[in-house]
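Run log // design_07
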């Protein structure tokens, strides 16, 4: 298969760059038994990072726009091209409404996204061991973008992949109106994760066009699994350096 192309998703410059997936032993066994990769629901991940999938603080600057003169220059230029017949207050209200609608869409659509996360690094990371595995019983597998792209078998479903962008949510301008942008960025405090993210967007039925009430009531699984050729995927298996000798031998 090949990952779907999309401007939001930027892959590493080298398809052979080493990527790591850290996990506890039970997840490693599950991967082996099911011969699959697990994609976690984005809403579930927001329990650890409440900003997952949300629009940054800078997106909401429109709430301080009281007149056209307050509007950012790029937005004001677009307003100037609107058809005649709209008054300036009407234009301003339309823009405010559209931005609030997008923020709500991002909030409710988090439950329609599923992600599989990897750490980009040429070496083992003590921080990743401590965060994503139980002390002394962690496992890590290495792969490459090229391998994961070849190994996954999505059965006709679209998968996207790219590097997560880390930004200052309080100062970095944000103007995108694409939900993928929210999924593929995190607060700069998570920059140490160096995350490569594979994304599945479950748009059936109705996808992003479902109304907010329907999305709020939608019951989704905590994750989905995609069949994967592990012989193609895995370059090497590492045992936590904190593990006991008996565990490494086993």
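design_07 sequence
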């Amino acid at each position: 298969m090949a990952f779907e192309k999309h401007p939001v998703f930027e892959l590493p410059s080298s398809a052979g760059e080493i990527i790591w997936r850290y996990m506890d032993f039970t997840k490693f066994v599950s991967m082996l038994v099911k011969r699959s990769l697990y994609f976690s629901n984005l809403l579930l991940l927001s329990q650890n990072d409440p900003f997952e999938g949300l629009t940054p603080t800078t997106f909401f600057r429109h709430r301080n726009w009281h007149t056209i003169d307050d509007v950012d220059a790029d937005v004001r230029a677009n307003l100037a091209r609107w058809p005649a017949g709209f008054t300036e207050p009407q234009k301003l209200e339309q823009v405010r409404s559209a931005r609030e609608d997008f923020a709500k869409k991002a909030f409710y659509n988090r439950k329609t996204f599923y992600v599989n996360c990897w750490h980009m690094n040429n070496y083992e990371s003590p921080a990743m061991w401590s965060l994503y595995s139980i002390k002394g019983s962690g496992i890590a597998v290495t792969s490459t973008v090229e391998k994961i792209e070849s190994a996954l078998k999505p059965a006709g479903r679209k998968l996207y992949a790219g590097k997560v962008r880390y930004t200052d949510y309080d100062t970095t301008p944000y103007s995108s109106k694409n939900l993928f942008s929210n999924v593929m960025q995190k607060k700069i405090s998570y920059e140490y994760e160096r995350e490569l993210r594979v994304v599945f967007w479950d748009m059936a039925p109705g996808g992003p066009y479902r109304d907010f009430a329907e999305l709020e009531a939608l019951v989704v699984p905590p994750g989905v699994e995609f069949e994967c050729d592990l012989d193609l995927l895995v370059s090497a298996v590492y045992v936590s350096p904190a593990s006991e000798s008996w565990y490494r031998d086993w």
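Residues 18-54+112-249 form one domain.
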